[in-house]
Amino acid sequence: MRCSRSRLHAQAIHLAASTYITKQEDINEKMRAILIDWLVEVHLKFKLMPETLYLTVNLIDRYLEKEKIKRSHLQLVGVTAMFISSKYEEIYAPECRDFVYISDKAYTREQILKMEGDMLSKLNFQLTTPNSLLFLKRFVKVAGVHANPRTKTDLLANYLVELTLQDYKMLKYLPSQIAAAATYLSLKTMGANPWVRCAPAACRPHLRLNCSLGAAPRACCALTLSLTRATARFHCAVFGAAAAHVLHRGCHPALRARHEPAAQERGCQQPAGRAQEVRAGEARLRERHPASRDCSVSRRRASRPTGGTAADAVRSRRLDRRRGRARISRVLL
């Protein structure tokens, strides 16, 4: 027990406080989420390692905890944090001019290098910190869902952990707790048996900490609820309220039991099936555009060749894909 507490204390040494944003005068939680969302795209553009993104978010939070900055310099802090993280984690790190270009030349090379020195001095050059990804890799192996190719449970757990990067409210939890809750929630969602608490004497030494973190329902219930709410907020922002409603009702029995009474009081209805949604969308389109009511199907049939060459068939498939992308963009907009 004393060893577990010392390990938990070691995780919190280089983590930002969960209330640091209240000390900032010009930025808030939403701006932090927008910055991290942009950094995810930069991370994807440069094809960096996942550990680089986690270290970037950690450096941003720790620096903002120690220094008050203006809103106009928030992107500079994010770019510099990723610049430092890529030097630390990557073999072939992007150069400073690459970050100047990716920020649309909003900041010069001298400003990024100056911010790099200031950030490293404020953090006392402490860059080695535990993150949720490292714990998740271990917990997935212990849960028996690690395989090559990767299983759906493994991918879902990584997805849930990545969603916590943008959520400021998840800073109050330790990285090991977030990873354990993500593994627990992914196992429950995929219908697998979650971990059960066992006596420390019956566990192997390297599994005692995992059992104490991920197996106890009391220790994991609040974190799992927060993690599911964060996922629901993300799905609601991207896919609409119906996706969040389905997520609350379907992914965890405890959340389903809590959500059903509130849903009955508000008069929420079960979301329609996919076929009903498609038919309703087609009906709305026909009402808005009566002229295309009869000719939409005929155009699709006419675009498919009945007996042409291979080039005609390829051209027809490209046209179908373009029309499909156009329909998707109209729905999202």
Describe the structure.
This protein is mainly alpha-helical and 333 residues long. The protein folds into three domains: 2-122, Cyclin A, domain 1 (Orthogonal Bundle), CATH 1.10.472; 132-266, Cyclin-like (Cyclin A, domain 1, Orthogonal Bundle), CATH 1.10.472.10; 274-332, no CATH class. The protein has helices at 2-11, 29-46, 50-66, 74-89, 96-102, 109-122, 132-143, 152-163, 175-189, 208-215, 217-239, 241-250, 253-266, 274-288, 295-303, 310-332. Helix 4 packs across helix 6 (109-122). It is globular. It starts with a helix and ends with a helix. The model is unreliable at 198-219, 241-272, 292-307 and 326-333 (pLDDT under 50).
Task: Describe the secondary-structure layout.
Layout: H1 2-11, H2 29-46, H3 50-66, H4 74-89, H5 96-102, H6 109-122, H7 132-143, H8 152-163, H9 175-189, H10 208-215, H11 217-239, H12 241-250, H13 253-266, H14 274-288, H15 295-303, H16 310-332
Helix pairs in contact: 2-3, 2-4, 3-4, 4-6, 7-8, 7-9, 8-9, 9-10, 9-11, 11-12
CATH C-level of the largest domain: Mainly Alpha
Count of structural domains: 3
Q: Helical element count?
A: 16
Roughly how much helix do the residues carry, as a percent range? 55-70%
Radius of gyration: 24 Å
Total strands? 0
Q: Which spans have pLDDT < 50 for at least 5 consecutive residues? A: 198-219, 241-272, 292-307, 326-333
The oligomeric state is: single chain
CATH fold title of the largest domain:
Cyclin A, domain 1
How far apart lie the N and C ends?
53 Å
Strand content: under 5%
Largest sheet: none
